[in-house]
Amino acid sequence: MKGFPDARPERWLGALALIIIALISLGNVITRYLTGGSFSFTEEFSVFLLVVLTFAGASVALRRNRHIRISFLERALPFKYRRALILFQALCGAIVLGLITWYGGKLAWQEYQWESLSPGLGLPQWWYIVWLPVLSAAMLWRLLEQTRERLTGRFGDDA
């Protein structure tokens, strides 16, 4: 979209996740209809891909200033106080995303060390979990970009 900041890697990842979910779900429905059975991997992959899609979409929304927020207070405050509120909002978001990144990374590392396997397919569990810290770090980066642009006035309080 012209005029909007881009988060191209996250857009592509989200689109790819959605396409794969649609394809494996369609394949599963057709197989179940024709044979009465279903693919065993579809639920495990679909849940994993939904998490990827959620984090990738949230990252794109951050970059484009499209997250839901109540901006009444921002509009009511003078500029210097609005700036402090924007910094406070960013700090709160950065703390949450930083914790998700840190503890998600620790969890992925532990799953790798313990050689844990997924319950459905027996794949290494860290293959799924490693995306949590990676995408939350992407969200943190997009939050910092968005905050910088809101502070410089490139984004208003309404997207």
Automatic annotation (TrEMBL):
Ranges of residues in domain Tripartite ATP-independent periplasmic transporters DctQ component: 21-152
Keyword Transit peptide attributed: no
Subcellular location: Cell inner membrane
Record membrane topology: Multi-pass membrane protein
Keywords: Cell inner membrane, Cell membrane, Membrane, Transmembrane, Transmembrane helix, Transport
Major localisation: membrane
GO CC aspect terms: plasma membrane
Job of this protein: Part of the tripartite ATP-independent periplasmic (TRAP) transport system.
Family the entry assigns: Belongs to the TRAP transporter small permease family.
Name this protein carries in UniProt: TRAP transporter small permease protein
Species assigned in the record: Vreelandella subterranea
Highest classification ranks of the organism: Bacteria, Pseudomonadati, Pseudomonadota, Gammaproteobacteria, Oceanospirillales
